[in-house]
Write the structure tokens for this entry.
Amino acid sequence: MIVRMWRGSATVGANADAYERHVTATVFPAVCRLEGNCGARLLKRRVAGHIEFLAVTYWTTLEAVKAFAGEDVERAVVEPAAQAVLAEFDPFVTHYEVAHAAGVDGTNPGQARSGPDVGSATGLPT
């Protein structure tokens, strides 16, 4: 399984709220319908008058990422509506391969999974 991470921030208040609404109501539902996508999460934290967001998407393969992002998978895909409310954002993304997973998909943390099945369609997260 491939994890794709991207960071951006918006000022506290209307812009941060608008970005969160846009991602959760528009972007993530569309992304989650794509073949090879296994889910998405939006993390946030308050940092010096801004809300920093970390968008995390999960994919079965790098080929599935390419179908979404294009041939240059390291380039961030940031829609104009998101750019309009973000104070700053990274123009790049970072990818990781899941090496081990424990409890993040609702399973008992004592039933940790690693190895080839982690990246399968039944792997995490859902």
Remarks:
- Residues 114-126 have pLDDT under 50 and may be disordered.
- Strands lie at 2-11, 37-47, 50-59, 88-89, 94-97, 100-101, 113-114.
- The helical segments are 14-32, 62-69, 80-85.
